[in-house]
Amino acid sequence: MAPLHLQTHKLLYRAMIGTGGVGSGSFFALEGEHTLGREESRAGRFLNRQDYCKLHIVSHYVQTLLGPGFVVVPASKVGADRHGQRLLAEMQEAGLDLRYMHVDKSRPTLFSFCFSYPDGSGGNLTTSDAATSAVDPDFVNALDGEFARWPGQAIALAVPEVPLPARQRLLELGAAHRALGVAGVTSAEACSPQIWALLKNVDLLAVNLDEARALARAPQTECTAAEVLTRVAHRLQRARPGIRISLTAGKEGSWCWDGGALAHTPAFVTEVVSTAGAGDAHLAGLIAGLAAGLPLGQAHQLAGLVAGLSVQSPHTIHKQIDRASLNDFARRQTRALSAPVWELLDNQREGAEVA
After folding, report:
1. pLDDT surpassing 70 at residue 2
2. Could you tell me if residue 40 is inside a domain?
3. Cβ atoms of 13 and 293 closer than 8 Å
4. Which of 92, 158, 280, 302 would bridge with 57, disulfide CB 3.0–4.6 Å?
């Protein structure tokens, strides 16, 4: 049987070393549209949806897409509980290198309780004393030797759900070994002065529209996504000249800034079951494309395919995504893909429309 990872004969990067959140969560559908009161009891039901955190989602897809020839090293902490045990087992099954995944016996695994109203709006409650809160620069320093193994051939990934100082330190270590620095931030972090220290070593910043608005200090309704990204790019250029930026905006598609020009990738036609985790799936596809040598715009096409297929699952990791399922999804689209993207999906692309 043919391998189910992308056709990556010559990888530009050989490893991804990252830190961020690893945790779980549950989804609860409330009855009634009115906002939950402070002392109210409300009926509802649990949904058959499994939640995962950012580092786990991105690492899973990157490993699945690029296969065993690409090394993925996540560094984070889980608790000594059933959630942590299950997550580590799933990460091991996906082929991730778990030497820097530690079990914290004094703190629980990061967990979110996500609730939703019938109209689709909602919120979540997340543990603040989780094991991920103990990921600090000293913990991340152990990764220096891993970056040294891949000088100029590693990707340093720093995503939320662990403290900013740890993510900043990981990017510093990566920069010292000429790694490609990739990062994500929350909307709250985007408004913090501390974010500028993180951005000093970021080569590619991945944000959604809300996070980009926070970075750009743009009004919520007056600016289009393209205008917001342009503002972000001009603002960040002063701190990090040449930074590349990826912005996702749901059904509006995605935009990228390559350091000099703005490009738009429309969203692919898909059946939406849940959009949770789609932004992380997009980032994983983007990283896989860049690792395989695609330029940013073409990598955005691959990222859009991964995100478009990911929303067909109720879970934040769609475990059926691989080269074959992406190839099938791409063939059902009416929009043309670039030839190098098709070559990654399948060297035998009879009947495929090539741009």
Report:
1. no
2. no
3. no
4. 280
The strand pairing partners of 354, in sequence order, are 337
Q: What is the extent of the structural domain holding 269?
A: 15-31+45-345
Listing DSSP states for 210-259 in one string gives HHHHHHHT--TTTS-HHHHHHHHHHHHHTTSTT-EEEEE-GGG-EEEE-S
Amino acid 340: pLDDT: 93
Name the DSSP class of 100. Answer: T
- 347 has a pLDDT exceeding 70: no
Q: Report whether pLDDT(348) > 60.
A: no
Is residue 244 packed enough to be buried (19+ CB in 10 Å), middle (13-18) or exposed (0-12)? buried
pLDDT of residue 260: 86
CB-CB contact of 76 with 132 (8 Å): yes
Does the residue 91 lie in any domain? yes
Check: CB of residue 12 under 8 Å from CB of residue 292: yes
For 176-211, what is each residue's pLDDT tens digit? Answer: 999 999 999 999 999 888 899 999 999 999 999 999
Residue 27 lies inside a defined structural domain of this protein: yes
Domain tally, the chain:
1
Q: Which amino acid is at 217?
A: R
Does residue 6 form part of some domain?
no
What is the token pair recorded at 200?
Answer: 């000093």
Q: Are 187 and 200 in contact (CB under 8 A)?
A: no
3-state DSSP assignment of residue 111? strand
CATH of the domain at 77: 3.40.1190.20
Strands (E), 9-139: 15-19, 23-30, 44-46, 51-52, 71-79, 101-104, 110-116, 122-126
Mean pLDDT of the chain: 91
Distances (CA, A) of 316 to 82, 251, 311, 347: 19, 17, 8, 29
Q: How many residues does the chain have?
A: 355
